[in-house]
Phosphate transport system permease protein (Methylocapsa polymorpha), 309 residues
Amino acid sequence: MRGLQRGDTIFRLVTQGAAVAVLLILGGVIASLVMGSLPAIQAFGFGFLSTEVWNPVTDRFGALAPIYGTLITASIAMIVAVPIGLGIAIFLTELCPYMLRRPVGIAIELLAGIPSIIYGIWGLFVLAPFLQKNVQPALIGFFADVPVLSTLFAGPPYGIGMLTAGVILAIMVLPFVTSISRDVFETVPPVLKEAAYGVGCTTWEVVRFVVIPYTRVGVIGGIMLGLGRALGETMAVTFVIGNAHRISASLFAPGTTISASIANEFTEAVGDLYTSALIALGLILFVITFIILAIARYLLMRLQLKEGT
């Protein structure tokens, strides 16, 4: 009996130590980012967040362009990936022939295992030329007379730019959205779907009124996981976004993201202020990710409370 109690105590202490270690590592990361970014914060203040200029020669740095590029490319990625990912998950669980479910599911999951550098090379040499020659000119002509959209899809068609980066990110986050959505869709009790079919519901009505409401917490969790990947992706975006520290209303224009700026310039950073500005970008990305995940957790909590009532 004492041996069992001793083993249980050791197990509890080990697991508790692992949990505390995670918190200590997270605290250490936050502390190092804050300390490293202090020179930039002291030099530029809140103007660092609202300034577009990025000039290492004159030691003038602003994070507005990387922040803008990060949010825009991540938004494009989720706008493209979420409908496609949910559609694939619905097809695999409700419509796909049984013999094809496993091969198609494995093929989707393999996309998550491809290194980001491969996505970047493919995007630079295949996707970008394709968009430049076929897609971007068509979008420019189609939306030429449409207010707002004519600005978003304005030329010239560079091929590389924020739209291309967003599409690459969409392909990269698609496996996460699809796999998690498929897994949670499969948890729906068959009796609920059979009852809906029994009263004459179509497949679309079953998905809309039974499957998605039953699994919406898990679906939102998968979407947030994909969004977290999109916000922090580096190498693939660096290849195709153009790496220009400027803000443009056109989605075809070159831009940059926080992670791409850090990857491109950290090895070339000369001087404490330059290095501190790059570390400050990392701190900003951490804060953005934390805020988005906190909002996601709040939404999930609200949904769970509604389900409980």
